[in-house]
């Protein structure tokens, strides 16, 4: 399991464990398709709830900044129409100023918005790196607290963790059913 591998890395890293965790989060952010929940779980297990949550937040924030910069440099050149399939993210791509700022915060708050796509859309918009960083970080705080709390209760495997897993399972199944119906109509 990915969490166990990361946990071993953190344990063997000693004083460099925080840096290793942040680097892993940067790689996850750049790749854009790997969920970071296993790293959050490893951080909470290794560093404790609050320290692990803060380290996950720092890693995700730095990862979003690095990804934003890399995407802005590369995607506009190699794949400028990559967001054509994602209508809400296209809106972000075509906005600027406070509207773009609020959209980034809103997308970060929404737990099922793919983080990599939000960063990609932000990088293709006209918003500055500073605006993106602030909006992204503000939106990540409550989202990561919810994720960390959920992970904590699942790791503890008490009734709250079981309820969280059941709700998550129902949401995933509902999403897949809805997506399947949308594909059938096409």
UniProtKB/TrEMBL annotation:
Indicate the transmembrane segments per the record: 12-34, 46-71, 100-122, 159-177
Q: Does the keyword Cell division apply?
A: no
Q: Report the principal subcellular site.
A: membrane
Keyword Transmembrane helix assigned:
yes
Renumbered to this chain, the signal peptide range is: none
Concerning InterPro entries, the annotation shows: TMEM64, VTT_dom
Q: Where is the VTT domain?
A: 34-152
Q: State the annotated membrane topology for this chain.
A: Multi-pass membrane protein
Q: Tell me where in or outside the cell this protein is found.
A: Cell membrane
What are the protein's UniProt keywords? Cell membrane, Membrane, Transmembrane, Transmembrane helix
Positions the record marks as coiled coil are none
Taken from the UniProt entry, a GO cellular component term is:
plasma membrane
Q: Which family does it belong to?
A: Belongs to the TVP38/TMEM64 family.
Query: What name does this protein carry?
Result: TVP38/TMEM64 family membrane protein
